[in-house]
Amino acid sequence: MTPQETIDRIEIQDLLTRYCHAIDRQDWREFERLFARNAMLDYAAFGGPVGNRAEIAAYLKQVTSAMRGTQHTISTSLLIVDGDAATARTAGQVMMVSANETSDDRVCFVGLWYRDLLVRTECGWRIQSRMQERSWMHNAPPVAAL
């Protein structure tokens, strides 16, 4: 592995990590900066929309504002870098706290894969396309369990 390949991998891993932090901090400006200008995102695996970065930010803002808390984590990225482009398949785990029927905490656990195409831009690595791939859910509210 060349020094540049090592740097690319570290920068891409940092980008993927910043995605998790942006959502959990509800920092939608930072969220949008993680994506290329013409990025397309597919969140249909869990009933969400397919859209551009602003449309997905608006959707996630609505979803997370209804939650008492969220925590997004990632692990085990399979990353292939080819010059100024890369692909990644990354395991994601999401914990979301909402209220159940009696206003007690309901913690939902979600396992998914992020399927990404990444590109090197003048501002560094950015996500060009992202698709969520459903893996599992535990303790989901009835509307999300479909």
UniProtKB/TrEMBL annotation:
Coiled coil: none annotated. This is Nuclear transport factor 2 family protein. Signal peptide: none annotated. SUPFAM superfamilies: NTF2-like. Residues 5-130 form the SnoaL-like domain.
